Amino acid sequence: MKTxxxxxxxxxxxxxxxxDTLSRTALVDKLHLCDxxxxxxxxxxxxxxPHTATLNYQDILDNPNISVVYISTTPExxxxxxxxxxxxxxxxxxxxxxxxxxxxxxxxxxxLSKRNNLKFTIGYSQRFNPKIAFAKKKITDGTLGNVVSxxxxxxxxxxxxxKIASRVRLSPVVMESTHDLDFVYWLLEPAKPVKVYSQGAxxxxxxxxxxxxxxxxxxTMDNGVVVMIGGGWNLPPxxxxxxxxWIEITGTDGAFFIDDTQRDNWxxxxxxxxxxxxxTMPGEWVDHTFAGGIGPETIHFLEACIKNGPVMVTPxxxxxxxxxxxxxxxxxDRGEPVDLPLSNETISAIAExxxxxxxxxxP
Length: 363
Ligand SMILES: NC(=O)c1ccc[n+]([C@@H]2O[C@H](COP(=O)([O-])OP(=O)(O)OC[C@H]3O[C@@H](n4cnc5c(N)ncnc54)[C@H](O)[C@@H]3O)[C@@H](O)[C@H]2O)c1
Prior knowledge:
Layout: E1 4-9, H1 13-24, E2 28-34, H2 38-48, E3 52-54, H3 58-62, E4 66-71, H4 79-88, E5 92-96, H5 103-115, E6 120-123, H6 130-140, E7 147-157, H7 158-167, H8 172-175, H9 177-187, E8 193-201, H10 206-209, E9 214-221, E10 226-235, E11 243-251, E12 255-260, E13 266-269, E14 273-276, E15 284-286, E16 289-291, H11 294-306, H12 315-334, E17 338-339, H13 344-359
Parallel strand pairs: 1-2, 1-4, 2-3, 4-5, 5-6, 7-10
Antiparallel strand pairs: 7-11, 8-9, 8-17, 9-10, 11-12, 13-14, 15-16
Helix pairs in contact: 1-11, 4-5, 5-12, 9-12, 12-13
This protein binds nicotinamide-adenine-dinucleotide.
């Protein structure tokens, strides 16, 4: 049986889920873990019994036996340099979103993976949500006819929003609606986005990092399909890292509505009140089984590497999503629609907008 040596760089919440999954599968011969936080590294070492554990990812690069690497680090600015080093070092890479912070960085990662004949994918785990996979199936087999509209409304708990927004000044459309843009574009393939119009509203998050609480983004596709994606991160606690999503897809021959608000598992206790359990976006291990998308997604990438099969999410599709959310940020700032694909003028305006954010002169 063919097995591989795999590594996780960054083993916080998401990297911990990846490490947990990799520690259970017979496809991994030896597991290697890396985190710059000694306390967290000691914790995952005790939990998942890796072959090696290191504070420095150079040790992963230096080990020629490691062929598959999962990168789940924060802050998101380190995605590009770590992924670049791994791809240069000949490793297959699964990287969490965002693929990079700049379009040229994403382009370089894509080039490196192609030149070195390596698998490279982005962790858009909602594609492994069975409800969304079913929507894809019903669109592909023609049940819905021609799709007319897609609406996605996703809200995260404010504790998670605060965690994300405190480490990096990225908006809800970049950090959250990115998942929805990814799977909606997948559902609507081969249609391409041609226009984006986004608006944001301030509330709880403004004092935390100046960000909107909620952004609503409309995307027009080149075949006329209209997409509306709402992403917010100001819900009161309902479960640690709670996420609620409502999806409506209409077509010429049918419609498919998905209630992914996660209110179907209701735990009520004296200590914690009411909680909607198993309701995080990536999912969680429940003893012997995984509730959610990240478990199957982790194994899918491993199998794509071992069997030399296609990855579910191409980096080119992640780049297209990146173009859209970058345009959405600009649109919300300007209060007007932005055309896609990005023109040089728009790329320059996005760079200027990001500069204002970094300088703190943008609300
Ligand atoms: N797919 C999903 O549903 C989903 C959900 C949440 C987050 N994410 C993404 O996953 C990524 C990780 O998020 P998280 O919530 O696990 O963050 P986290 O902060 O809990 O974990 C990140 C870990 O990376 C470590 N790290 C930072 N720099 C490092 C380096 N140079 N070398 C090794 N380790 C390093 C940190 O010490 C930390 O333990 C983010 O990019 C986020 O956007 C995806």
